[in-house]
């Protein structure tokens, strides 16, 4: 009974959220819904996975056990030297921790930490700060996004503002109005909270976010000094995307006005076409009345050259008032 109640509650809450998002009656902050998969049974997890497959943007929370172990400092931290990568598999609702040590020069140039999955696993890239009690407190997290044939997430500490794309905004826009989804495509850009790291050892983690299976991943740490051209390109493209977002906001207003005008003239076109068709139809009907052919109603029409007789006209009698008088007199004479 309890399982059925939880299942119904989960389905109802997700369904209501989906409807609210489609109707657009609530702000995005009030629509966010996070599910702790560690507290769900198999059936409820299947429901969550199904809704996710259907396109409902479902966010998952990080397991309390993982956060607690990190705060207590009881997690195992593997070294991840700059310029190297590590591949592995992490169970769902579990995390693999890595320590990235950087010097002053590397910190000044900038650091990039990226995770990819060729198996398109769902995962979270986490960044922890050192806690005063000796553990690690969660500071940043990036959910994996599908980019081409892989899923990926990255953190870019390059001394300038970088942005991450929240696909939830795009999913809601498409559900609400597929035509306007294009204009909302860049609205999912969210500024990253941290833009630089200081020298020292920094703790990152890969968290398994699949509903059932383990997540396969490759994590790598890079110094931007070896990627100066790429860094400048990223800085430039971020600026271009921000400008484009503002341009799209203005263009959407122009597009809406033009679309309304287009719909107006389209309706006018349909009405005028129907009017012209009706007038021509009436004209053809009037032309068709000029004819000697008796119409189906049985009412005859007078026309020039007609041999038809006037209605009510009968055969003319003979002068003596008897049309067959001549025949009768001849018969009498023969009898005499």
TrEMBL record:
<keyword id="KW-0175">Coiled coil</keyword>
<feature type="region of interest" description="Disordered">
    <location>
        <begin position="291"/>
        <end position="336"/>
    </location>
</feature>
<feature type="compositionally biased region" description="Basic and acidic residues">
    <location>
        <begin position="323"/>
        <end position="336"/>
    </location>
</feature>
<dbReference type="InterPro" id="IPR052812">
    <property type="entry name" value="Plant_DnaJ_domain"/>
</dbReference>
<protein>
    <submittedName>
        <fullName>Chaperone protein dnaJ 15</fullName>
    </submittedName>
</protein>
<feature type="compositionally biased region" description="Low complexity">
    <location>
        <begin position="297"/>
        <end position="308"/>
    </location>
</feature>
<feature type="coiled-coil region">
    <location>
        <begin position="227"/>
        <end position="282"/>
    </location>
</feature>
